[in-house]
Design brief:
Layout lengths: L1 H35 E6 L7 E3 L7 E6 L2 E6 L9 E3 L3 E4 L5 E3 L4 E3 L8 E6 L4 E10 L11 E2 L4
Antiparallel strand pairs: 1-10, 2-3, 3-4, 4-9, 4-11, 5-6, 6-7, 7-8, 9-10
This protein binds FE2/S2 (inorganic) cluster.
Length: 152
């Protein structure tokens, strides 16, 4: 009898544990999927060359330059400080690292250059950024590294 009770207790505990963990697992997967793809708004919002920081909370700047629009990380590669655009590039006030406009480190302690993220244009002419797809400097000419900027 005590063995049967133990078995019931084990089954009950297993069921409770499964009930507790399954939603957490689903929630983590959903958050990861949803948060990695960001609608950065109409391409028409990026009418002139420059750095646009309205998506910095999602981890990237939208940059328009030389007829291209791309998404470049807004997070310092040293210890994930938030970057601030400057006339020459980007600055991290956490430990004073700087990056050139193209994301290359110009002053340590950061050692790694900034990445870009895959972008595409959807059927509403919005810029869609996928932060799960990192693009390193050597791949900046890849088809998903930028979209063509609309005429000004
Ligand atoms: S977190 Fe940016 S320099 Fe340290």
């Amino acid at each position: 009898m005590s063995n049967e009770l133990s078995r019931r207790q084990i089954i009950l505990m297993s069921a409770l544990a499964a009930a507790a963990f399954i939603p957490i697992g689903k929630a983590l997967g959903a958050v990861g999927t949803e948060s990695s793809v960001v609608d950065a708004g109409p391409l028409a919002d990026y009418a002139k060359d420059g750095v646009f920081d309205q998506s910095a909370s999602h981890g990237f700047f939208v940059i328009r330059k030389d007829g291209k629009i791309f998404a470049q990380s807004s997070v310092c590669t040293h210890r994930r400080g938030r970057l601030t655009p400057t006339p020459d590039g980007f600055f991290c006030k956490a430990h004073n690292s700087t990056f050139a406009a193209d994301g290359k480190v110009t002053r340590p302690p950061a050692k790694a250059d900034l990445v870009r993220y895959a972008v595409r244009k959807d059927d509403k002419n919005h810029l869609i950024v996928d932060t799960s797809k990192r693009i390193e400097h050597a791949q900046f000419d890849a088809p998903d590294a930028h979209v063509e900027a609309p005429s000004a």
